[in-house]
Specification:
The protein is of the alpha/beta class. It has nine helices and nine strands. An eight-stranded mixed β-barrel has the order 1-2-4-5-6-7-8-9, surrounded by five helices. Helix 9 links the parallel strand 8 and strand 9. Helix 3 runs parallel beside helix 4 and helix 4 runs parallel beside helix 5. It is globular and about 65 Å long. Bound molecules: ligand C2E and calcium ion (3 copies). One calcium ion binds next to loops. This is Diguanylate cyclase (GGDEF) domain-containing protein. It comes from Stappia indica. It is found in: Cell membrane.
Length: about 270
Amino acid sequence: AKSSADPGYRIFDEDIRKALFARRRIETGLAAAVETKDLEIWFQPIVDLSASQICTYEALARWRQPDGSFIAPDQFIPVAEETGLIEQIGLLALERGLEAMRDWPEGTRLSLNTSPRQFGKGVLVPAVAAALERHGTPAARIELEITENLLINSGPEVFEDLDALAALGVGLVLDDFGMGYSSLNRLHRYRFNGLKIDRAFIQRMEEDETSAAIVSAIAGLARCIGMHCTAEGVETQAQLDLVHKAGCGRAQGYLLGRPGPHASAQPTA
Ligand code: C2E
Ligand code: CA
Ligand code: CA
Ligand code: CA
């Protein structure tokens, strides 16, 4: 509690000290977790709505704590981005994902999140090619999810990587579509195989007609330019009906299956 003898800036200093401490703990702990098996890769299904079956699993990082709880990516991905550890996490997800795929039904694909930091360094493309080769996995069975910020202020080396991945046959998907600035401009700058509409739009569809119209428009646009379209964060049957009606070919969300340490055999709804 604050007393008259305890000026406000002390409290402020204390907050900063705590924040810095927590951050440093994440930094050192995360580096160790990547080395040990405490950084796990979980999988969440993506359902093809016309076939009513799982077409893809997205790999999502989870950090296991000594007490068995997990720290969510929101807490550590930003730190990993800053320190560069995200590059190793990306390679870990690729490796664990390709291992896990051996048990999946034929044709099921693996979708991997990427960080802008992985691109343009001459590492990503050879690593992907070598991992596919080593596991005997066709390139068409994996796709990389790319966020729009990769395409902002990026040099030709980034586009060279995208071209090289496309030439390998790896799918390229624009993630969190609609959240960045001038999303449509991104579609113009690079030819993607698909896009994922951010959860924020899906969650507003039920009560907000404008959001529903935006989702329909994005799905229609995707269809016109030959991209597949995934609705993220579908939590209710009403949302599932709406995204289907809006023309999204694929959906992902807690209604259809939560992320888990193993690929689930069936959609849970
Ligand atoms: P994202 O790529 O947009 O992934 C989808 C996030 O939404 C995941 O959060 C997933 O668990 C969550 N989600 C899925 N369905 C639902 C739903 O129905 N409702 C709600 N409320 N949430 C849902 P998660 O696993 O916490 O990951 C957060 C973000 O961290 C991801 O967002 C992705 O950007 C990043 N991330 C996770 N793993 C990796 C990784 O291995 N590499 C990189 N570069 N980024 C990663
Ligand atoms: Ca994603
Ligand atoms: Ca997303
Ligand atoms: Ca998101």
